[in-house]
Amino acid sequence: MTPGKVISVDAIDPLVDPQVLDDPYPYYTQLRTRDPVHLVRGTQTYLVTRPELIRQVIADTETFSSATSSFLHVDADGTVRLRSTTPGDIPEADVPSVLAVADPPDHSRQRRVLSRVFSPAAVARRERDIREIVARLLEPHLRPGPLDWMAVMAEPLPSIVLARILGLDDDAAPFLKEFGYAAVEQIGGFVDAERGEEIQARMSDLGPVADAYTQALTGNGPGPDTVLGACADAVRTGQLNDLEVISILLMLVSAGSESTASLLGTGALLMAKDQSLQQALRAQPELLSAFVEEACRLDPPFRGHYRRVTRPTELAGVALPQDARLVLMWPAANRDESVFDRPDQVQIDRRGIRQHLGFGWGPHLCIGAPLARLEARLAFEHLLAATTFFHLDDRQAPPTYLKSLMIRRLVSLPLVLQIRPEH
Fold first, then answer.
1. Widest distance between CA atoms in the chain
2. Contact present, 358 and 330 (Cβ < 8 Å)
3. Which of 362, 333, 337 shows the shortest CA–CA distance to 103?
4. Quick one: pLDDT at residue 6?
5. Which residue among 5, 93, 137, 222 is the one 20 to 30 A from 59 at the CA level?
């Protein structure tokens, strides 16, 4: 796809075209300017692409509920439909709504329990530990020549940090990564029935997470500065029940490493393709926090989040029936020309640099955003400090993205490093 190309929306929706999956932004621009509440044919699902409309939806939780477990799915013949991720014998209404798929007041109550673990102050206290993990992962690979950034840093770092913040040992990290990747594969839109059953079976066992939670309930497990300890305390004091905790743990393990892995890949790719940007950040590492915001704005980890319409209404003049679904398209909104100057470019000195929707917005702003920001800043800081420059490895296949309607994550990112002589 090339910018300016007009795409017919009368055919199977371009959203699922492989070229659009790889580079969705020309299509997002078309939707944002011509069809900002776009019906995906045959699905009763609408893509919302303008930031002011997304904020309007988020602000009205009575009309637009976060409680939904249905996602767009592409059949073998290319037909797009809604498909629930709950097992067939469990009604969607019986699944506990937690965090990202919960509405007030439950959402606020649940979030309060976790805030002491994910608050900016609590996350900042983990900086020394995360620096140590970054160094442990990267140092053995710091030699002139090729390096796959995703394999060396972007994938293992978030799962190790997630293990620690849950209250687990580092050796639980591989389980957490594989569990999380299976979970997001399930909602990505391209899982056939057989693979879907495999994922459902896998997700029925939280393994070391469930074991550690059981220990925490007895007072002999992870402490109160961890997710498991905070949840166990909340159950003992009546703030949460066991079913909510299990659902919260499933959600955190499912998404806890995904968003940071995506952000780490996006940021490294942007630097590898722009040597002047890379050198500016190397010379002034204090600019890295702003760069992380721009990376998240330009290419957010999640392509969108869902809302369920609870009563007939309209949005931007489009009639929405009860039980329709909306997909809030963060990446499309983040490149709105009426909000962001030169929206397709990294602008480290951008005014209001955190006003993007890359981590969501409002009450549902990603609870793990402070942690993702810290991990990304520290990983990029170490990479820049150890190198004089790095670039894409043109001897390898170009970087490719996971085939998903929900996730924007690089499968691999082959780089070539030039190491500082003194390192």
1. 65
2. yes
3. 362
4. 41
5. 93
Strand partners, 46: 39, 326
Q: At what angle do helices 288-298 and 275-283 cross, to 10 degrees?
A: 150
Rounded CA-CA distance 107/295 in Å is 28
pLDDT in tens, 208-267: 999 999 999 998 889 899 999 999 999 999 999 999 999 999 999 988 888 899 999 999
In single-letter form, the type of residue at position 86 comes to T
Confidence label for 5 from pLDDT (cuts 50, 70 and 90): very low
How many CA atoms does the CB half-sphere of 264 hold within 13 Å? 32
Tens digit of pLDDT for each residue in 157-192?
999 999 999 999 999 999 999 999 999 999 999 998
For residue 51, cis peptide bond before it (omega within 30 degrees of 0): no
pLDDT score recorded for residue 95: 66
**pLDDT, tens digit, 9 for 90 and up, residues 116-130:** 999 999 999 999 999
Environment class of 207 (CB within 10 Å of its CB; exposed 0-12, middle 13-18, buried 19+): middle
Q: Could you identify the residue written with the tokens 């029935």?
A: 193
pLDDT for 193: 83
Confidence (pTM): 0.93
Q: Using CB atoms within 10 A of its CB, is residue 239 exposed (0-12), middle (13-18) or buried (19+)?
A: middle
Residue 154 makes CB contacts below 8 A (sequence gap 6+) with: 261, 264, 265, 268, 379, 410, 413
What tokens does 340 get?
Answer: 């962001």
Element containing residue 247 per DSSP (H, E): helix 242-255
Round to whole Å and give the CA distance between 365 and 361.
Answer: 5
Q: Quick one: which H or E segment has residue 185?
A: helix 173-186
Closest CA to 352 of 298, 293, 300: 293
Residue of 360, 350, 361 whose CA lies nearest to 287: 350
Angle of CA points 81, 410, 367, to nearest 5°: 75
Report pLDDT for 423: 74
Number of H helices and E strands in the chain, helices first, is 18, 12
Q: What is d(CA 2, CA 342) in angstroms, rounded to the nearest whole number?
A: 18
